[in-house]
């Protein structure tokens, strides 16, 4: 779960100061489809970049599973972006001389997976977005909607907890936009999707929650969330219980990195001598 507390972000140009985010507080559910609306300059993309660790906030705090990021170093943000977040951009950001399959495989180069495993995971991701028959084409041979689906496959191939999309339909026609939005809606069934858009009609049709920004502040939130709403009773009373952790937080708990987990495994954070213990069953490891 993500929680923003009084986040502020300024941009300075000469003697001018622009308050991109002005004391923004927001809690996001582990699985929902959030659309962020607002006029140009309202802070939409800055908010998305702060959530994704691409921009550093000036003050306030971003909490990941209740753990502050205020003392994060570069390697911590790198781990967060590489293992927890997937990005989809309006301009696709595909490498033109690489095949569709190679573009998706590139997202796995730092995962530690072997070549055969990388290939299999990339093929599976492309099949999930309906491009299993386009593996060896170059981006220039695809339509705009197909290129955006490649970008979505690349964002999902690491099985991130969070998918961030910045104007994913901005360069697409209406019919193709609907196809991409249908795909994002399906993705949001088991993870958090946050999308910036200028299209209120698409947001109203597909998003489960709409947040409107103006001048760096939240003006409206159609379905606000308080973290206490979904805590078990023992948590609300302040009692502890075993829970899963994102791998990005291991060093803050002074625990050894347990290495990659297999689907269906989870971790108990307080094994013998402070070492994490693998437990079978439960949700996929790493889910926020």
Q: How would you describe the oligomerization state of the chains in this entry?
A: single chain
Largest beta sheet: strand ordering: 6-7-8-3-9-10
- Structural class, by secondary structure, is alpha/beta
Q: What proportion of the residues form beta strands (DSSP E)?
A: 25-35%
User: What's the pLDDT, averaged over the residues?
Assistant: 83
Separation, N- and C-terminal Cα atoms: 5 Å
Shape: globular
Helix content: 25-40%
Helix count, per DSSP? 8
**Any idea what the radius of gyration is?**
19 Å
Question: What does the main sheet amount to?
Answer: 6 strands, mixed
| Total strands | 12
> Which segments are poorly predicted (pLDDT under 50) over 5 or more consecutive residues?
236-258, 263-288
Order of helices and strands: EEEHEEHEHHHEHEHEEHEE
Can you walk me through this structure?
The chain contains eight helices and twelve strands. With 288 residues, it is an alpha/beta fold. The strands form three sheets. The protein has a six-stranded mixed beta sheet, with helices on both faces. A four-stranded antiparallel beta sheet has the order 2-1-4-5, with helices on one face. Strands 11-12 form a two-stranded antiparallel sheet. α4 packs across α5 and α5 packs parallel to α6. It is globular and about 50 Å long.
Short account of what is shown:
With 288 residues, the protein is of the alpha/beta class.
Could you list some keywords that capture this structure?
288 residues; alpha/beta; 6-stranded mixed beta sheet; 12 strands; 26% helix; disordered C terminus
């Amino acid at each position: 779960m993500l929680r923003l507390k009084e986040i502020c972000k300024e941009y300075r140009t000469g003697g001018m100061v622009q308050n991109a985010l002005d004391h923004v507080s927001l809690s996001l559910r582990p699985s929902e489809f959030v659309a962020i609306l607002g006029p140009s300059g309202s802070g939409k993309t800055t908010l998305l970049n702060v959530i994704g660790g691409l921009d550093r906030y000036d003050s306030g705090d971003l909490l990941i599973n209740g753990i502050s990021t205020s003392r994060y170093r570069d390697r911590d943000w790198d781990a967060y972006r590489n293992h927890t977040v997937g990005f989809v951009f309006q301009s696709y950001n595909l490498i033109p001389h690489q095949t569709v399959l190679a573009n998706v495989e590139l997202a796995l180069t730092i995962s530690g997976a072997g070549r055969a495993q990388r290939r299999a995971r990339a093929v599976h991701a492309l099949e999930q977005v309906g491009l299993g028959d386009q593996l060896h084409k170059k981006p220039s041979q695809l339509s705009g909607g197909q290129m955006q689906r490649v970008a979505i496959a690349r964002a999902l191939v690491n099985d991130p907890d969070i998918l961030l999309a910045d104007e994913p339909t901005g360069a697409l026609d209406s019919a193709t936009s609907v196809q991409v939005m249908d795909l994002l809606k399906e993705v949001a069934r088991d993870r958090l999707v946050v999308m910036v858009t200028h299209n209120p009609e698409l947001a109203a049709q597909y998003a489960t929650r709409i947040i409107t920004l103006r001048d760096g502040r939240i003006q409206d939130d159609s379905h606000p969330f308080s973290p206490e709403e979904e805590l078990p009773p023992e948590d609300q009373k302040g009692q502890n219980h075993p829970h899963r952790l994102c791998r990005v937080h291991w060093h803050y708990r002074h625990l050894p990195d347990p290495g990659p987990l297999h689907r269906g495994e989870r971790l108990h954070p307080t094994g013998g001598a402070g070492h994490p213990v693998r437990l079978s069953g439960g949700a996929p490891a790493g889910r926020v």
